[in-house]
Amino acid sequence: MADRVIAAHWSDADLAVLAGGVGPDGRRLPASGWMALRRLGWGAVAPAGVVVSDRVRRIAEEEAARALRLGCHRRAVVAALLATWPADPSARTSEEWSALRAALPEGADSATIRNRTRQIRAYLDGCGRLPAGLCEVEGPPVVARQVSLAAADRQQVVVDRIDDRRVRVWSQLPVCASPASYRDWVWHAVEVVLPPTVPAGVKVCSPTLRPRDGEVRVDLPWQTPHTPPPLHGHRRALGVDWGVNTLLTATVADLDQDGVVVDGRPLRFDATGVSAKLVRLRRHREHLRTKVEHLTRLADGRPAHADPALTGKLARLEVEHEAVCARIRHLNKALAWSAARWLLDHATAHQASVIYVEDLATLETRGRSRSLNRRLSGAVRGTVFTAIAHLAAKRGITVVTVPARGTSSGCPRCGAALRHVNAPDRNVAGYRWATCTCGLTLDRDHAASQRITARGLTNQTKTRRDRNGRAAIRTATDTPVRRPARRPAPAATGPARERRKTAPTPKQTRPTGAKTSPLLPLRRQVPAPTHPPPGSAGKRPAGRTPQATNPSGPVRQVPHTVSTTPRHPHQVRGAVLGRGFHRHVHATPITHGTTAQARCPDHEDQTGNQRRSRS
After folding, report:
1. Which of 200, 363, 530, 577 is the most exposed place for a label (fewest CB within 10 A)?
2. Tell me, what DSSP letter sits at residue 361?
3. Domains of the chain (ranges plus CATH)?
4. How do residues 155-192 score in pLDDT, each as one tens digit?
């Protein structure tokens, strides 16, 4: 029903009427999609021989209204591009960019401009002329297989809260594919177990039903009171740079009367091991897809009973391909949410009120090697940003995107062009390290995170929210950052220690509260017992069992002398083994009471102690 409504009104004239926001009676269209379509006379009609209630038609009209309103936004973007179409779309001048920005609707990002430009160029190459509008470039969209019960009322859906962990959803659903009367619509009860992340006592809203693979998935939203955090007035921020090998690199910075002061400690979430695993899984997935396509071509035109071995092998390969795809999706999701939680824990520990992230929508995969293109195309940057925004809203922290152009090529201290080398001791062209003529030498991602933080703090008055509620800074000016002044060493309060060697060094007593090593002592360090227990006479306290020096025949080695540990065991550097969701993720541990808090009295810990948060 929704597809019929969209196909009937997918034209420039109807989209212009819907975008105008005024009905035929001169009144403003309602905010509800289904009510706006009924005001325009675009109501949904049930198929012949099918009986549905008014609430079911309302659900279909809401789905159609959402698709048509998205088409209105795309139509405005395409109209702006056609009105300012340059001679060379791949190399617009500054004047052409200014004219395009003035004609575009609010909230149009660089990725949308790039994609719609490619779409228009493809039509121009195929037809030899520019299209008249959006409806000539693309056909009507297809509605997904879902039922948004939020558009109905209590006559169609009822949500009851059983307890803190269970919810019962009552909904009228048909018992056959084509209900011929209202007797074919029956109330169904669906009991949903809430995950532990849903707090107790929150308001549970009407769900969305998604039939898939013989089952129905329930998207059950819930509401909690939330106040949007402020966009400006921040004094401490966390700047985040996106990387391919190192997933996230962050820097803590403060804004004072003299400018931006950065902390020299980089915060890294290194997921190189997980990325390598994802690359192997993608290669395996592509190999399986090649096999499936080859066997499908062999099976075309043959009856299923002619070659049962081929049919069975094709079915097994398709099942394995789907399992590999599901594993990649789950690993990407776990990686993204783990990185987002790690970043928010650091922001909370450093008491930062805003997180600045570079605009990842402008990152493209062209012009690189095939392996790098594959890694960039399968990256989880979009999921990471969504997770960061979701978790930050719960903690009252603002998330703002800043322009990404020039963050890795400019020096954060003087603004000059950086020179990228392999390592600080290898002065050859590379990627990992950045050096500057002003004396700056540090990690490339760390320098980019400092530049991102400085852009956000100095241009926070330019922050705006788009129509989706996302905060962004469109144009930014760079400001040099500086390191905090070092504190002088504290003066000695007691008498000076005697350092002359005129007498033997006195024995130092170990304090009672000193830390001891958690490792067990070696066998040779354990003293032998003075009185051995009964029955153990003749046993050695330590060492191997003695063996004959010149045996007469082949002698088997003693079992306990055979090494059972690998020569080079896995050692995690810079992190605790097992921290996070994966053993190959190396992340900077979250600590409270850092040096950044010590130099700013306004953000000192009230207890005065250093605490370690949960990983």
Report:
1. 530
2. G
3. 2-137 (no CATH), 147-223 (no CATH), 236-271+342-482 (3.30.420)
4. 999 999 888 889 999 999 899 988 999 999 999 998 98
